[in-house]
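User: Sorry, folds how?
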Amino acid sequence: MFRGVFTALITPFNKDGSVDYGALRDLVEIQIAGGVNGLVPVGTTGESPTVTHEENVKIVEVVVDQAKGRVPVIAGTGSNCTDEAIQMTKRAKEIGADATLQVAPYYNKPNQEGFYRHFVTIAETCELPVIVYNIPGRTGKNVEPETILRLAGHPLIAGVKEASGSMAQVMEIIAKRPDGFAVLSGDDNLTLPIVALGGDGVVSVASNLVPGRMSAFVKALLEGRMEEARRRHYELLPLFKAIFIDTNPIPVKYAMTLLSSLSIQEVYRLPLCPLAEDKKRLVKTVLEDLGII
């Protein structure tokens, strides 16, 4: 199930700061038409830190309803409080989500045993497949390969979104994982090496903008067409760099305001704020050069 391109959906906001559910439904349709393999609402790219728990669940509900089973939905329902994560994940399961993305607990920085117990408790209490989200740059602590591999032995821990930036860590997990445990890149620009080494795909920010191109790129990788995959990687590399010129999802959300196919507002919730003008010019130039706008 967890193989290919899974779009880390942005959360569109109206000018008054409320969630724009109509634009979200349009975005889901564009993603599915573009051939992505799944949708990941309310992750980092979906501004999960600043949506309320009720909004979080409602966003998942809208995405599940709009997807109508055409692609799996991996609901971002993580928290650094295990009980909160369980509450939201239970609701996501009731709504019809296919799996849950669970970020490594942030700020309280548990030890490795704490990480293990956190993820297993959520999986066993909610009985929904868990994708572990390891992103130490945001959470302050790495989920070590030994812990990921220990978790991989649990039947309800389905995979990991690896955003540690450490290829040594990714290789160790891929080399030692059990069959059926998915390893997904958490960085668009590391998709090629991770999949080439045996990974299963990517949870992608860039596919918000170019779902078709990202799908073709990863499909070529998974099918072993490396020359084509390299060509597509280098074509998209300026985009991968541009959408991380500032804190995600600020650049990608600005870029999406430039698309004629969607009505996205350049609205964030504090402490996120709009992109500086010089960075806007850079992003716009990249989109023009790639024929995206």
The mean pLDDT is 97.
